[in-house]
Amino acid sequence: MPTFRLLSFVIALLATASAWGASAVSEHQLKIVASNYPLAYFAERLAGSSATVTSPAPADADPAYWRPDAKAVGAMQKADLILLNGADYEKWLAHVTLPRLKRVDTSAGFRDRFIRIENAVVHSHGPAGQHSHEGIAFTTWLDFDQAAQQAEAVAKALIAKRPELKTTVLDALKTLQADLAGLDGELKRITAARPGLPLMASHPVYQYLARRYGLNLKSVHWEPGEMPPANEWTGLDKTLAQHPAKTMLWEGPPAAAVADKLSTKGIASVVFDPCANRPESGDFLVIMKRNIENLKASFQR
Amino acid sequence: MRHDFYLAWRYLRHHRMRTLILVLCLSLIAALPMGLHRVLDAGEYWMTRRAEATPLLVGARGSSVDLTLGALYFSEAGVPAIRMQEADRIAATGWADPLPIYARYRVQGRPLIGVTLDYFDFRGLVPAQGELPAILGDCILGADAAERLGLGPGDTLASSSGNAFDLAGTYPLKLHVSGVLAKAHSPDDHAVFVDLQTAWVIEGLGHGHAETQAAPTQPDSPFGAATVGRADAELLTYTEITPENLGSFHFHGDPATYPISAVIALPHDARSATLLRGRYLDDKSATEIVRPLDVTRGLLQNIFRVGALFDGILLLVGGIAFLLVALVFALSLRLRQREIETIYLLGCARLAVLRLLLAEILLIALFAGAVCTAVLAAAAPHASNLARHFILS
Ligand SMILES: [Zn+2]
Questions:
Q1: pLDDT tens digits for range B163-180
Q2: Helix B2-14 and helix B16-52: axis angle, to 10°?
Q3: Is there a smaller number of Cβ atoms within 10 Å at the N or the C end of chain B?
Q4: How many angstroms does the Cα of residue B159 sit away from the middle of ligand 1?
């Protein structure tokens, strides 16, 4: 009998200890804030269940033009890691108080390869007011080689914060980079079939994509949901005279009227979603694969 | 025995003035050296604790004492500025985490300290009321600063108390108090903290313009060089940062060249600390690295030397006072000759007189001890402030 009582006591002790251990682990879950969805996706894949990843910008806002209020900043201050895209993506950074030691500029490694945009036009984005794309092109992750470097920066930051996760993070990084290299290879293969094929873009966000994959891309400044005014269409005609594009890339599906009007000019509307915000379904990889599939048709036509 | 004390007490009561003076003299002579040691101990505790918690400090080459006092204890003297890139350099080594500090300005007599948010984590400072600064123009007050200024979350205070010698012309910025820090019993209690970027706005390196809203013109050709002029009509700079004008705030030039006072370096381990210190061995470099603990130890040694001198003087004064008290008793014995004779005549032993005297001395010593303790107890809460006042500034 005493042996049994001792045993049950030990078991009870062990159970409490393990429960305490489990709660300690969940308490130590890393809180990661990512300023856009691609970074959040990288962090989720690299950290797995050892982190909770959030993005501060609401689902319906473009994180590139969103501005945090005091409450959002307060929430970000409580994070263990703040993943920033860099390349002037976080225009609000100079206006808020965030811990510097927790900030990770994921594009710092290829800072010297940023694309500068000069003479950009100011244009309106509906209710959000006007903006211009002057400065540094920031859709860095559409160059999947750069995306892999950003993923690596995320991995390094994770390991620095949690050295015990090193092997799991590095393994996850390997598969993630393999996926990104797959996208990179596929796009290179597709675009190599018809180098210099003229293309149009509805918005100047594809600079890195164009550079990496040698796209002959010209851009208007249109929004998917808005019918461009007449002068935009005459401008487009002028461009098409020297740049006979048969495809226009869109960040999201354009309004039917716009797509119809474009198709009368022989231009097909193709969605290439930069995926700056979390998609309603699928993930970064799924969306990018779909993008590449969408683009593929233009190169095979 | 009880009768001795009763008689002694009656006697002392009868000669009130004499007793009072004796008690006061004795208690003060005892309280002074003890109080001084309290202040010194407070200063030592306070300085070493802070210095121990701050492993390495990088600042302009020059006086390491000034650097330490300026960056750790926010002394009024100030520290020559270095550039923000010093912090980046330390981070780039991978050996230490940098905590830049900009302690140049004062606001209503309080040190205005520009830090990064990491500083609060590092010093274990948490808001007792309100929140940490979140937006440009926010500040958070140390516990004592909040009490003295009578401010709390939601209040504002103007950044500039007019720096008459500042020719660069900093303009006042209305700071929004986002919170009050819990008491830390350290120099942080007396300071007003802002984000480094806010400190640079106060410095005039960043500002917001009133922009005339150019009509959102659609250019003729989307591909041409048509740029929309953003006429900076009047260069009206804001003196308060509001959600409406926040977007217009911007910085000019390279933030790496912006001024800071010092960088606290938090090495990851002992090896990193050694490596980092090796980086600053070059005498020609404009910056130096110091170990605040070494500096404060040197400083404290000087203080204790002064303390020992005081002790010597006070010992002398105490000896003289003792002799004076003895003289007072001897003289009073003379005066009490007739009284003593009466006691004999009443049939008391010679010893009784001695016992009476002893009782008197004991009572006086007891009173003096009580007064001394009361004085020390009353002064104790101020020991740390006195230490701060006399040792640091
Ligand atoms: Zn300006």
A1: 444 444 556 788 999 999
A2: 100
A3: N
A4: 20
pLDDT band at A11 (very low <50, low <70, confident <90, very high): low
Nearest chain B CA: its distance from A14 CA (Å): 34
ipTM of model: 0.80
Please name the residue of chain B whose CA is at the shortest distance from the CA of residue A117.
B225
Closest approach of B221 to chain A, Cα-based (Å)? 5
| Residue from the list A99, A130, A238 with its beta carbon closest to the beta carbon of B121 | A99
d(CA B15, CA A300): 118
Q: In this complex, do B135 and A101 lie within 8 Å of one another by their Cβ atoms?
A: no
Contact A77 B132 (CB under 8 A): yes
Using a cut of 0.95, tell me whether the model's pTM lies above it: no
Please compute Rg for chain A using Cα positions: 23
Residue ranges of chain B whose pLDDT lies below 70 = 1-2, 160-171, 210-238, 388-393
Interface touch A98/B117, C-beta < 8 Å: yes
How far is the centre of ligand 1, averaged over its atoms, from the C-alpha of B194 (Å)? 21
Find tokens 């706005």 and name the residue. Answer: B201
How does pLDDT run across A219-233, given as a tens digit for each residue? 888 888 888 888 889
Amino acid at B205: L
β-sheet with A268-271: strand ranges across: A216-219, A198-201, A247-250, A268-271
B249 and A95 within 8 Å at the Cβ level: the answer is yes
How far apart are alpha carbons A97 and A99 in whole angstroms? Answer: 7
**CA distance from start to end of chain A:** 84
A148 is written with which tokens? 């892999």
Are B72 and B57 in contact, with CB atoms under 8 Å apart?
A: yes
Distance B251 CA to ligand 1 centre (A): 7
Per-residue 3-state assignment (H helix, E strand, C coil) for B215-262: CCCCCCCCCCCCCCCCCCCCCCECCECCCCCHHHEEECCCHHHCEECE
CA distance, residue A119 to nearest chain B CA (Å): 6
Whether the predicted pLDDT of A25 surpasses 70: no
Residue B102 in contact with residue B111, Cβ under 8 Å?
no
The answer to whether the Cβ–Cβ distance between A120 and B247 falls below 8 Å is: no
Of B312 and A23, the one with more pLDDT: B312
Sign of CA dihedral B345, B346, B352, B353: negative
Is B220 an interface residue toward A (CB < 8 Å)? yes
Q: What is the pLDDT of residue A13?
A: 52
Q: Compute CA distances B206 → A134, B87, B258, B379, B386, whole Å.
A: 20, 20, 10, 46, 38
C-alpha to C-alpha distance for B45 and B294, rounded to whole angstroms: 14
Report CB contact under 8 Å: B134, A77: yes
CA distances from B287 to A59, B36, B62 (A): 47, 37, 8
Torsion of CA B214, B219, B223, B226, to 10 degrees: -50
